[in-house]
Amino acid sequence: MTNQSHTPLFLGIDGGGTKCQVRLENDCGVLLAHAQSGPANIATSVSVAQQSILAATALALQKANLPATAIARINAYAGLAGAGINSAKNTMAQWQPPFAQFNFSTDLHIACQGAHGDNSGAIIILGTGFCAGAIKDNAVIELGGHGLLLSDGASGGWIGLSLFRYALEVLDAMSPSSPLIKCLLTELGCDTSSSLTELALNEKPAYFASFAPLVFKMQDDPVAHIILTQAAQFITRYIDHLAQLGYQRITLMGGTAKVITPWLSSKAQRYLCDAQYSPEQGAIQLAKMHI
Fold it and tell me: Which positions ≥6 away from 258 have C-beta within 8 Å?
């Protein structure tokens, strides 16, 4: 029992714009617990991300029937949304968490490590936000992922925002309505462009992303068809670019990955392959490399 209480633990952390997911393993690679908490995008808020990491960790220890003090035995590695922004990265690097060891990089890095391991391959993450990239010669190549205002086409945030933009055109009598738009406006209780603007003007990407499932649920709707066709075209550009860079194995990951795949051309789909492991497992691989 004494030996067991001193053995190292490993924690893989996938910190996204909507949620922070963790995987806790023992030193033999046995899964002890999964847990989830709030957002962990450090470009949005470093302090919120840190709170989410600690909350998910505490929940994982609880699920694994381990004492809270076991956090001191954890070797953790986090892939965090926003870690490509230098100011956020530098602020996060000053954190002194209660883990035995803590390292971090981008959410793209851990996802690519999990998807392809040491083999050549690329990924496209379609979550609240969007990013694409690959690992080449131990260096991470990142494309996109500059936030909803600047990029992130085809992300959950973009799909939801596109729906709102179209709804505003309908309310301004600039475009024809549809069952999808009527469903959205009924759900929100809005019947003027002013009321919809007031509701959504200061919302974050995660809010708009929460409406992406509605677009997929009603994908036969003409407005949904327009939005999802544009999303597929955006993704296809990145698939073509990654293929031109020499990556023949590309994994789509994130909340909308499976549901958007049928919208891609058969040519684009030929490059797609399943991930070998989850991003959290990729993070644990990286945690073990840092010991």
Answer: 252
Whole-angstrom Cα distance, residue 100 to residue 265? 47
Question: How confident is the model over 17-56, as pLDDT tens digits?
Answer: 889 999 999 999 999 999 999 999 999 999 999 999 999 9
For residues 279, 281, 284, 285, the Cα torsion angle rounded to the nearest 10 degrees is: -100
Residues 6+ apart with CB under 8 A from 66: 9, 32
User: Rounded to two decimals, what is the model's pTM?
Assistant: 0.86
What is the spatial distance between Cα 256 and Cα 227, in angstroms, rounded to a whole number? Answer: 13
Q: How confident is the model at residue 278 (pLDDT cuts 50, 70, 90)?
A: very high
DSSP H or E stretch at residue 158: helix 156-171
How far apart are alpha carbons 113 and 163 in whole angstroms? 33
First to last CA, the chain: 24
